[in-house]
Design brief:
Radius of gyration of chain A: 21 Å
Number of helices of chain A: 11
Largest sheet of chain B: none
Oligomer: heterodimer
Number of strands of chain A: 17
Strand order of the largest sheet of chain A: 3-2-1-8-10-9-5-6-4-7
Structural class of chain B: mainly alpha
Strand content of chain A: 25-35%
Strand content of chain B: under 5%
Distance between the termini of chain A: 9 Å
Helix content of chain A: 25-40%
Helix content of chain B: 40-55%
Order of helices and strands of chain B: HHHHH
Shape of chain B: elongated
Number of strands of chain B: 0
Distance between the termini of chain B: 33 Å
Largest sheet of chain A: 10 strands, mixed
Number of helices of chain B: 5
Protein backbone atom coordinates (compact mmCIF):
# COMPACT_ATOMS: atom_id res chain seq x y z
CA UNK A 1 0.00 0.00 0.00
CA UNK A 2 1.46 3.36 -1.04
CA UNK A 3 0.60 6.09 1.47
CA UNK A 4 1.31 9.75 2.09
CA UNK A 5 1.76 10.73 5.73
CA UNK A 6 2.10 14.26 7.08
CA UNK A 7 2.75 14.50 10.81
CA UNK A 8 2.06 18.15 11.38
CA UNK A 9 2.34 19.95 14.69
CA UNK A 10 -1.39 20.54 14.63
CA UNK A 11 -2.80 17.53 12.83
CA UNK A 12 -1.60 14.19 11.52
CA UNK A 13 -2.83 13.45 8.01
CA UNK A 14 -2.56 10.22 6.02
CA UNK A 15 -3.92 9.07 2.67
CA UNK A 16 -3.79 5.86 0.70
CA UNK A 17 -6.01 3.62 -1.43
CA UNK A 18 -8.86 6.12 -1.40
CA UNK A 19 -8.89 6.45 2.39
CA UNK A 20 -8.04 9.57 4.35
CA UNK A 21 -7.24 10.01 8.04
CA UNK A 22 -6.94 13.30 9.95
CA UNK A 23 -6.55 13.61 13.72
CA UNK A 24 -4.92 16.07 16.15
CA UNK A 25 -1.20 15.39 16.69
CA UNK A 26 -1.75 14.90 20.39
CA UNK A 27 -0.66 11.98 22.55
CA UNK A 28 -1.95 11.54 26.08
CA UNK A 29 -1.65 9.21 29.02
CA UNK A 30 -4.54 6.81 29.05
CA UNK A 31 -7.23 7.07 31.70
CA UNK A 32 -7.99 3.74 33.28
CA UNK A 33 -11.24 4.64 35.00
CA UNK A 34 -13.44 4.53 31.94
CA UNK A 35 -11.31 2.27 29.80
CA UNK A 36 -12.09 -0.42 27.24
CA UNK A 37 -15.84 -0.85 26.77
CA UNK A 38 -16.75 2.74 27.51
CA UNK A 39 -14.07 4.02 25.16
CA UNK A 40 -15.35 1.83 22.37
CA UNK A 41 -18.90 2.94 23.01
CA UNK A 42 -18.01 6.62 23.26
CA UNK A 43 -15.38 7.12 20.59
CA UNK A 44 -15.08 4.07 18.39
CA UNK A 45 -17.27 2.29 15.92
CA UNK A 46 -17.05 -1.23 14.58
CA UNK A 47 -15.13 0.04 11.55
CA UNK A 48 -13.10 2.78 13.23
CA UNK A 49 -12.04 1.79 16.73
CA UNK A 50 -11.01 4.40 19.26
CA UNK A 51 -7.34 5.37 19.20
CA UNK A 52 -6.14 3.78 22.42
CA UNK A 53 -2.83 1.93 22.29
CA UNK A 54 -0.62 -0.24 24.47
CA UNK A 55 2.99 0.83 23.87
CA UNK A 56 6.40 0.15 25.39
CA UNK A 57 6.24 3.57 27.04
CA UNK A 58 2.82 2.88 28.57
CA UNK A 59 -0.83 3.04 27.56
CA UNK A 60 -1.62 5.99 25.35
CA UNK A 61 -4.56 7.84 23.91
CA UNK A 62 -4.07 9.55 20.55
CA UNK A 63 -5.88 12.33 18.70
CA UNK A 64 -9.38 13.41 19.74
CA UNK A 65 -9.48 10.78 22.47
CA UNK A 66 -6.35 12.25 24.09
CA UNK A 67 -7.68 15.80 23.75
CA UNK A 68 -10.95 14.89 25.40
CA UNK A 69 -9.92 12.36 28.03
CA UNK A 70 -6.24 12.56 28.97
CA UNK A 71 -5.34 14.61 32.01
CA UNK A 72 -1.73 14.59 30.78
CA UNK A 73 -1.33 15.23 27.07
CA UNK A 74 1.41 16.61 24.88
CA UNK A 75 2.28 17.83 21.40
CA UNK A 76 5.92 17.97 20.35
CA UNK A 77 6.86 21.31 18.91
CA UNK A 78 10.62 21.19 18.47
CA UNK A 79 13.05 19.39 16.26
CA UNK A 80 13.53 16.56 18.78
CA UNK A 81 10.20 15.10 17.71
CA UNK A 82 11.98 13.50 14.76
CA UNK A 83 13.33 10.84 17.11
CA UNK A 84 10.61 10.89 19.75
CA UNK A 85 8.52 7.75 20.37
CA UNK A 86 5.37 9.92 20.34
CA UNK A 87 5.97 10.92 16.71
CA UNK A 88 6.45 7.26 15.85
CA UNK A 89 3.18 6.46 17.63
CA UNK A 90 1.34 9.13 15.62
CA UNK A 91 2.80 7.66 12.44
CA UNK A 92 1.81 4.08 13.29
CA UNK A 93 -1.61 5.18 14.51
CA UNK A 94 -2.26 6.87 11.16
CA UNK A 95 -1.27 3.72 9.24
CA UNK A 96 -3.35 1.60 11.58
CA UNK A 97 -6.36 3.81 10.85
CA UNK A 98 -5.81 3.33 7.10
CA UNK A 99 -5.67 -0.46 7.60
CA UNK A 100 -9.07 -0.48 9.27
CA UNK A 101 -10.38 -3.40 11.25
CA UNK A 102 -10.25 -6.12 8.63
CA UNK A 103 -6.52 -6.64 8.11
CA UNK A 104 -3.95 -7.60 10.72
CA UNK A 105 -0.83 -7.39 8.54
CA UNK A 106 0.08 -4.93 5.80
CA UNK A 107 3.13 -3.70 3.91
CA UNK A 108 3.52 0.04 3.31
CA UNK A 109 5.60 2.36 1.18
CA UNK A 110 5.54 5.81 2.72
CA UNK A 111 6.18 9.33 1.47
CA UNK A 112 6.34 11.98 4.17
CA UNK A 113 7.77 15.45 4.72
CA UNK A 114 9.94 17.59 6.98
CA UNK A 115 10.28 21.35 7.32
CA UNK A 116 12.82 22.66 4.80
CA UNK A 117 15.44 23.63 7.39
CA UNK A 118 15.18 20.24 9.10
CA UNK A 119 15.54 18.25 5.92
CA UNK A 120 18.96 17.01 7.06
CA UNK A 121 17.08 14.82 9.57
CA UNK A 122 15.47 12.76 6.81
CA UNK A 123 17.76 9.77 7.39
CA UNK A 124 16.74 9.63 11.06
CA UNK A 125 13.09 9.48 10.08
CA UNK A 126 13.70 6.78 7.51
CA UNK A 127 15.79 4.73 9.95
CA UNK A 128 13.20 4.96 12.70
CA UNK A 129 10.18 4.16 10.58
CA UNK A 130 11.50 1.52 8.18
CA UNK A 131 11.09 -2.11 9.23
CA UNK A 132 8.48 -4.14 11.09
CA UNK A 133 6.23 -2.70 13.78
CA UNK A 134 3.60 -4.21 16.03
CA UNK A 135 0.82 -1.94 17.24
CA UNK A 136 -1.65 -3.03 19.92
CA UNK A 137 -4.96 -1.21 19.91
CA UNK A 138 -7.42 -1.45 22.76
CA UNK A 139 -11.02 -1.43 21.76
CA UNK A 140 -12.86 -3.58 24.25
CA UNK A 141 -10.49 -6.27 23.11
CA UNK A 142 -6.90 -6.01 21.91
CA UNK A 143 -6.38 -5.69 18.17
CA UNK A 144 -2.85 -6.38 16.97
CA UNK A 145 -1.73 -4.68 13.77
CA UNK A 146 1.55 -5.82 12.20
CA UNK A 147 2.95 -3.18 9.88
CA UNK A 148 5.87 -3.68 7.56
CA UNK A 149 7.37 -0.45 6.26
CA UNK A 150 9.31 -1.30 3.10
CA UNK A 151 10.30 2.21 2.02
CA UNK A 152 10.25 5.69 3.51
CA UNK A 153 10.84 8.69 1.24
CA UNK A 154 11.16 12.09 2.94
CA UNK A 155 10.52 15.33 1.01
CA UNK A 156 10.71 18.97 2.07
CA UNK A 157 7.11 19.62 3.11
CA UNK A 158 6.11 22.29 0.55
CA UNK A 159 6.96 19.92 -2.28
CA UNK A 160 3.85 17.97 -1.32
CA UNK A 161 1.65 20.90 -2.29
CA UNK A 162 3.64 21.48 -5.45
CA UNK A 163 3.21 17.85 -6.50
CA UNK A 164 -0.48 18.00 -5.62
CA UNK A 165 -0.87 20.77 -8.17
CA UNK A 166 1.44 19.33 -10.82
CA UNK A 167 0.65 15.63 -10.77
CA UNK A 168 -2.37 13.53 -11.57
CA UNK A 169 -3.61 10.94 -9.07
CA UNK A 170 -1.43 8.37 -10.85
CA UNK A 171 1.62 10.60 -10.49
CA UNK A 172 1.95 11.79 -14.09
CA UNK A 173 2.73 15.43 -14.81
CA UNK A 174 -0.70 16.93 -15.43
CA UNK A 175 0.26 20.59 -15.79
CA UNK A 176 3.42 20.96 -17.85
CA UNK A 177 3.11 24.72 -18.23
CA UNK A 178 3.12 25.14 -14.49
CA UNK A 179 5.93 22.60 -14.13
CA UNK A 180 8.12 24.68 -16.48
CA UNK A 181 7.51 27.83 -14.48
CA UNK A 182 9.44 29.54 -11.74
CA UNK A 183 7.27 28.97 -8.69
CA UNK A 184 7.36 29.95 -5.05
CA UNK A 185 5.51 27.94 -2.43
CA UNK A 186 4.59 29.31 1.01
CA UNK A 187 3.48 26.52 3.33
CA UNK A 188 1.92 27.99 6.48
CA UNK A 189 1.80 25.21 9.02
CA UNK A 190 1.10 25.11 12.72
CA UNK A 191 4.62 25.74 14.04
CA UNK A 192 6.66 26.56 10.94
CA UNK A 193 6.21 28.42 7.69
CA UNK A 194 8.20 26.88 4.87
CA UNK A 195 9.30 28.49 1.63
CA UNK A 196 10.41 26.67 -1.47
CA UNK A 197 11.49 28.07 -4.82
CA UNK A 198 11.61 25.86 -7.91
CA UNK A 199 12.50 26.71 -11.49
CA UNK A 200 11.39 24.16 -14.08
CA UNK A 201 11.25 21.63 -11.23
CA UNK A 202 14.78 22.42 -10.10
CA UNK A 203 15.04 23.22 -6.41
CA UNK A 204 16.60 26.64 -5.69
CA UNK A 205 18.29 26.53 -2.29
CA UNK A 206 18.83 30.27 -1.94
CA UNK A 207 15.11 30.90 -2.39
CA UNK A 208 13.99 28.33 0.17
CA UNK A 209 13.84 28.23 3.94
CA UNK A 210 11.81 27.93 7.15
CA UNK A 211 10.76 30.35 9.88
CA UNK A 212 9.26 29.43 13.25
CA UNK A 213 6.38 31.81 12.82
CA UNK A 214 3.04 30.28 11.96
CA UNK A 215 -0.40 29.50 13.31
CA UNK A 216 0.78 28.29 16.73
CA UNK A 217 2.05 31.80 17.38
CA UNK A 218 -1.31 33.21 16.32
CA UNK A 219 -3.07 30.68 18.57
CA UNK A 220 -0.89 31.66 21.54
CA UNK A 221 -1.60 35.38 21.09
CA UNK A 222 -5.32 34.93 20.45
CA UNK A 223 -5.54 32.45 23.34
CA UNK A 224 -4.06 35.05 25.69
CA UNK A 225 -6.49 37.69 24.43
CA UNK A 226 -9.42 35.30 24.93
CA UNK A 227 -8.21 34.62 28.47
CA UNK A 228 -7.88 38.34 29.24
CA UNK A 229 -11.20 39.26 27.63
CA UNK A 230 -13.49 36.35 28.44
CA UNK A 231 -11.56 34.59 31.25
CA UNK A 232 -11.64 31.45 29.15
CA UNK A 233 -8.47 29.34 29.24
CA UNK A 234 -8.29 27.29 26.01
CA UNK A 235 -5.72 24.81 24.75
CA UNK A 236 -4.05 25.43 21.40
CA UNK A 237 -6.37 23.11 19.45
CA UNK A 238 -9.42 24.79 20.98
CA UNK A 239 -8.06 28.24 20.09
CA UNK A 240 -7.42 26.99 16.56
CA UNK A 241 -11.07 25.93 16.29
CA UNK A 242 -12.23 29.23 17.74
CA UNK A 243 -10.18 31.14 15.13
CA UNK A 244 -11.75 29.08 12.35
CA UNK A 245 -15.26 29.66 13.79
CA UNK A 246 -14.61 33.33 14.55
CA UNK A 247 -16.46 32.80 17.81
CA UNK A 248 -16.17 31.43 21.32
CA UNK A 249 -19.07 30.24 23.43
CA UNK A 250 -19.41 31.83 26.87
CA UNK A 251 -22.23 30.63 29.14
CA UNK A 252 -23.90 29.15 26.06
CA UNK A 253 -23.72 32.41 24.14
CA UNK A 254 -21.63 32.83 20.98
CA UNK A 255 -19.26 35.80 21.21
CA UNK A 256 -17.47 37.23 18.20
CA UNK A 257 -13.64 37.18 18.34
CA UNK A 258 -12.79 38.55 14.89
CA UNK A 259 -11.71 41.82 16.45
CA UNK A 260 -9.16 39.89 18.52
CA UNK A 261 -8.00 37.62 15.70
CA UNK A 262 -7.57 40.12 12.88
CA UNK A 263 -4.69 42.19 14.34
CA UNK A 264 -2.84 39.01 15.31
CA UNK A 265 -3.15 37.59 11.78
CA UNK A 266 -1.98 40.95 10.42
CA UNK A 267 1.16 40.71 12.55
CA UNK A 268 1.86 37.07 11.62
CA UNK A 269 1.30 37.87 7.94
CA UNK A 270 3.76 40.74 8.14
CA UNK A 271 6.44 38.39 9.48
CA UNK A 272 5.69 35.75 6.85
CA UNK A 273 5.76 38.35 4.08
CA UNK A 274 8.98 39.88 5.38
CA UNK A 275 10.78 36.55 4.99
CA UNK A 276 9.19 36.02 1.56
CA UNK A 277 10.56 39.43 0.54
CA UNK A 278 14.01 38.43 1.81
CA UNK A 279 13.94 35.30 -0.34
CA UNK A 280 12.06 36.47 -3.43
CA UNK A 281 11.99 40.28 -3.36
CA UNK A 282 8.76 41.57 -4.84
CA UNK A 283 8.31 38.27 -6.69
CA UNK A 284 7.95 39.81 -10.13
CA UNK A 285 10.13 37.13 -11.72
CA UNK A 286 7.95 34.32 -10.34
CA UNK A 287 5.22 32.85 -12.52
CA UNK A 288 3.07 32.05 -9.50
CA UNK A 289 3.19 31.90 -5.73
CA UNK A 290 1.30 29.01 -4.19
CA UNK A 291 -0.05 29.43 -0.67
CA UNK A 292 -0.74 26.22 1.19
CA UNK A 293 -0.87 24.60 4.62
CA UNK A 294 -3.36 24.71 7.47
CA UNK A 295 -2.83 28.45 7.95
CA UNK A 296 -3.36 29.31 4.28
CA UNK A 297 -7.07 30.06 4.57
CA UNK A 298 -6.48 32.56 7.37
CA UNK A 299 -3.41 34.26 5.87
CA UNK A 300 -3.68 33.89 2.07
CA UNK A 301 -5.77 37.02 1.51
CA UNK A 302 -3.13 39.13 3.22
CA UNK A 303 -0.41 37.53 1.08
CA UNK A 304 -2.39 38.34 -2.07
CA UNK A 305 -2.37 42.00 -1.12
CA UNK A 306 1.43 41.92 -1.45
CA UNK A 307 1.77 39.31 -4.21
CA UNK A 308 -1.17 39.63 -6.57
CA UNK A 309 -0.20 36.43 -8.41
CA UNK A 310 -0.40 34.38 -5.21
CA UNK A 311 -3.08 31.74 -5.16
CA UNK A 312 -4.36 29.37 -2.53
CA UNK A 313 -4.40 25.66 -3.23
CA UNK A 314 -7.71 23.83 -2.97
CA UNK A 315 -8.17 22.29 0.49
CA UNK A 316 -4.72 23.60 1.51
CA UNK A 317 -4.48 21.76 4.84
CA UNK A 318 -4.39 18.44 2.98
CA UNK A 319 -2.43 19.54 -0.09
CA UNK A 320 0.93 18.32 1.22
CA UNK A 321 -0.25 14.82 2.07
CA UNK A 322 -2.13 14.54 -1.25
CA UNK A 323 1.07 15.48 -3.07
CA UNK A 324 3.11 12.99 -1.04
CA UNK A 325 0.73 10.24 -2.09
CA UNK A 326 0.85 11.29 -5.75
CA UNK A 327 4.64 11.33 -5.76
CA UNK A 328 4.65 7.91 -4.07
CA UNK A 329 2.39 6.58 -6.82
CA UNK A 330 4.82 7.97 -9.38
CA UNK A 331 7.85 6.53 -7.64
CA UNK A 332 6.55 3.07 -6.88
CA UNK A 333 3.84 2.32 -9.35
CA UNK A 334 4.38 -0.92 -11.31
CA UNK A 335 6.89 -0.67 -14.16
CA UNK A 336 4.20 -1.81 -16.63
CA UNK A 337 2.46 1.52 -16.22
CA UNK A 338 3.74 4.49 -18.21
CA UNK A 339 6.53 6.36 -16.52
CA UNK A 340 6.94 3.80 -13.72
CA UNK A 341 10.47 3.73 -12.36
CA UNK A 342 10.46 0.38 -10.71
CA UNK A 343 8.14 -2.37 -9.64
CA UNK A 344 6.01 -2.11 -6.52
CA UNK B 1 -3.87 24.92 -28.92
CA UNK B 2 -0.36 23.79 -29.70
CA UNK B 3 1.67 22.38 -26.86
CA UNK B 4 4.58 24.33 -25.49
CA UNK B 5 7.50 23.59 -27.81
CA UNK B 6 10.02 23.37 -24.98
CA UNK B 7 11.71 25.12 -22.10
CA UNK B 8 11.72 28.88 -22.05
CA UNK B 9 14.57 30.44 -24.01
CA UNK B 10 15.97 33.86 -23.57
CA UNK B 11 14.65 36.53 -25.88
CA UNK B 12 11.56 34.85 -27.30
CA UNK B 13 8.53 34.03 -25.22
CA UNK B 14 7.09 30.70 -26.35
CA UNK B 15 3.53 31.97 -25.90
CA UNK B 16 3.82 35.10 -27.98
CA UNK B 17 3.84 35.02 -31.80
CA UNK B 18 7.36 35.50 -33.12
CA UNK B 19 6.30 38.09 -35.71
CA UNK B 20 6.07 41.74 -34.67
CA UNK B 21 2.79 42.46 -32.95
CA UNK B 22 0.12 43.55 -35.45
CA UNK B 23 -1.15 47.09 -35.09
CA UNK B 24 -4.70 45.90 -35.64
CA UNK B 25 -5.77 42.66 -33.95
CA UNK B 26 -6.31 40.01 -36.57
CA UNK B 27 -6.62 37.04 -34.28
CA UNK B 28 -9.13 34.40 -35.08
CA UNK B 29 -10.36 34.53 -31.51
CA UNK B 30 -11.82 37.95 -32.13
CA UNK B 31 -13.36 36.85 -35.41
CA UNK B 32 -14.85 33.83 -33.73
CA UNK B 33 -16.31 35.98 -31.01
CA UNK B 34 -18.06 38.07 -33.59
CA UNK B 35 -19.54 34.96 -35.19
CA UNK B 36 -21.15 34.00 -31.91
CA UNK B 37 -22.94 37.32 -31.77
CA UNK B 38 -26.75 36.95 -32.06
CA UNK B 39 -28.61 38.30 -35.07
CA UNK B 40 -29.83 41.26 -33.02
CA UNK B 41 -26.29 42.54 -32.93
CA UNK B 42 -26.01 42.29 -29.16
CA UNK B 43 -23.00 40.56 -27.73
CA UNK B 44 -23.66 36.93 -26.93
CA UNK B 45 -24.51 36.24 -23.32
CA UNK B 46 -21.68 34.76 -21.27
CA UNK B 47 -24.23 32.11 -20.25
CA UNK B 48 -24.52 30.88 -23.82
CA UNK B 49 -26.12 27.46 -24.21
CA UNK B 50 -23.17 26.36 -26.34
CA UNK B 51 -21.28 25.24 -23.21
CA UNK B 52 -17.65 25.96 -22.40
CA UNK B 53 -16.20 23.05 -24.37
CA UNK B 54 -18.02 23.99 -27.59
CA UNK B 55 -17.25 27.67 -27.11
CA UNK B 56 -13.62 26.79 -26.58
CA UNK B 57 -13.52 24.83 -29.81
CA UNK B 58 -15.30 27.57 -31.73
CA UNK B 59 -13.01 30.30 -30.50
CA UNK B 60 -9.72 28.45 -30.44
CA UNK B 61 -6.87 30.47 -31.87
CA UNK B 62 -3.73 28.41 -32.31
CA UNK B 63 -1.67 31.56 -32.80
CA UNK B 64 -2.47 32.96 -29.39
CA UNK B 65 -2.04 30.08 -26.98
CA UNK B 66 -2.78 31.79 -23.67
CA UNK B 67 -1.60 30.46 -20.35
CA UNK B 68 -4.43 31.54 -18.08
CA UNK B 69 -2.74 30.56 -14.85
CA UNK B 70 0.18 32.92 -15.41
CA UNK B 71 0.09 36.68 -15.15
CA UNK B 72 1.11 38.81 -18.10
CA UNK B 73 4.35 40.73 -17.75
CA UNK B 74 5.04 44.07 -19.42
CA UNK B 75 8.04 43.82 -21.70
CA UNK B 76 7.54 40.10 -22.09
CA UNK B 77 3.91 39.64 -23.08
CA UNK B 78 3.41 43.00 -24.80
CA UNK B 79 1.74 41.62 -27.92
CA UNK B 80 -0.79 39.79 -25.82
CA UNK B 81 -1.36 42.76 -23.52
CA UNK B 82 -1.93 45.10 -26.49
CA UNK B 83 -4.37 42.71 -28.06
CA UNK B 84 -6.32 42.16 -24.84
CA UNK B 85 -6.30 45.91 -24.25
CA UNK B 86 -7.94 46.47 -27.63
CA UNK B 87 -10.96 44.37 -26.66
CA UNK B 88 -14.03 45.62 -24.88
CA UNK B 89 -14.29 44.49 -21.25
CA UNK B 90 -16.89 41.88 -22.11
CA UNK B 91 -14.87 40.54 -25.03
CA UNK B 92 -11.74 40.50 -22.89
CA UNK B 93 -13.51 38.64 -20.14
CA UNK B 94 -14.86 36.11 -22.61
CA UNK B 95 -11.48 35.69 -24.29
CA UNK B 96 -9.85 34.89 -20.97
CA UNK B 97 -12.66 32.53 -19.99
CA UNK B 98 -12.49 30.81 -23.35
CA UNK B 99 -8.74 30.38 -23.05
CA UNK B 100 -9.21 28.90 -19.58
CA UNK B 101 -11.80 26.42 -20.82
CA UNK B 102 -9.57 25.50 -23.73
CA UNK B 103 -6.61 25.11 -21.43
CA UNK B 104 -8.49 22.81 -19.06
CA UNK B 105 -9.86 20.76 -21.93
CA UNK B 106 -6.40 20.52 -23.43
CA UNK B 107 -4.94 19.41 -20.13
CA UNK B 108 -7.38 16.59 -19.55
CA UNK B 109 -9.93 15.20 -22.00
CA UNK B 110 -8.30 16.33 -25.20
CA UNK B 111 -4.98 14.79 -24.34
CA UNK B 112 -4.29 12.12 -27.01
CA UNK B 113 -4.02 8.52 -25.89
CA UNK B 114 -0.39 8.35 -26.96
CA UNK B 115 0.45 11.48 -24.92
CA UNK B 116 3.67 11.18 -22.97
CA UNK B 117 5.30 13.39 -20.40
CA UNK B 118 7.93 15.84 -21.52
CA UNK B 119 11.10 13.78 -20.98
CA UNK B 120 13.09 16.74 -19.62
CA UNK B 121 10.43 17.56 -17.06
CA UNK B 122 9.96 13.92 -16.14
CA UNK B 123 13.70 13.56 -15.62
CA UNK B 124 13.86 16.71 -13.52
CA UNK B 125 10.98 15.47 -11.39
CA UNK B 126 12.35 11.97 -10.92
CA UNK B 127 15.82 13.18 -10.04
CA UNK B 128 14.56 15.58 -7.36
CA UNK B 129 14.37 12.96 -4.61
Amino acid sequence: MIVGVDIGYGYTKAMGEGKQVVFPSVVGKSERIRYEEDIRRAYGTDDTPAMAFVTEEGDRFVGELALLQSRVQWTLLDRSRVEDPSARLLFLAALSELMGKGLATREFRVVTGLPVNWYADRDKIAAQWTGRHVLRRVNGEQIVHRLSIADVLVLPQPFGSLFDLLLSDEGQIADEDLARGRLGVIDIGTFTTDYVLVDALRYIEKGSGTIASAMSQACALVGRSILDTFRLDLRMHDVDRAIRRGQVTIYGEDRDIEWLVSPVLDAISAEILAHAATLWGDGRDLDAILVTGGGALAIAERIQHRYRHARTLPDPALANVRGFLKYGCRKWRPASQPGGQDGA
Amino acid sequence: MERDPGPRTSGAHPYVPQQPAPTRPTHRLQVSLSTTRPASGRTASPRSHAGPRRQAQETLDPQVPLRPQFRLRPGYDDALIRWLGSLSPRQRSRAIRTALCQYLADQSDHRPAEWQEDPDLAHALDSLF
